[in-house]
Input
Amino acid sequence: MQEKEFRTARGYQRLVQEQKNLTPSMEDYLEMIYRDCLREGYTRVNILAERLNVQAPSASKMVQKLTEMGLLDYEKYGIIRLTDAGRELGEFLLHRHMAIEQFLANLGVRESLLAETEMIEHHFSLATLNKIIKLNQFFADHPEIHARFLQYSRQTDP
Ligand code: CO
Output
């Protein structure tokens, strides 16, 4: 898992170094497109708009922007596919999402798990993300310690 993180983070790191950071909104789109493409091999503007709860014209605008950045293959009114660069980034973003969601679940968060993941997932450095992944792995490797933590957390709740 650790090695996979470093591999899939490469494209992301490149963007950060070139200061071409994606906005949180661009990251949400790319993550969703990656999820859809995993399932179906492609997606469409109207499907994306529905999943992301936005109007079709905004989705269309964003898809065009991501296409200009070389992350998507898209012709107007057609189907949307990921380029290799887009797929690499999408894989990283989905991986990051799952790591943060697991992190919150490990803390004992139950309600609003998805909503809170969506709020915070964009704002970690790669170094911090890797530490979070290590903590997840540590809890997975030592379930008895995780159980003790959850018990401690419950006992000291107000
Ligand atoms: Co997400």
About this structure: Residues 144 and 150 are 10 Å apart (CA to CA). The pocket of cobalt (II) ion is lined by residues 31, 97, 118, 121 (CB under 6 Å). The first strand starts at residue 72 and ends at 74. The chain has nine helices and two strands.
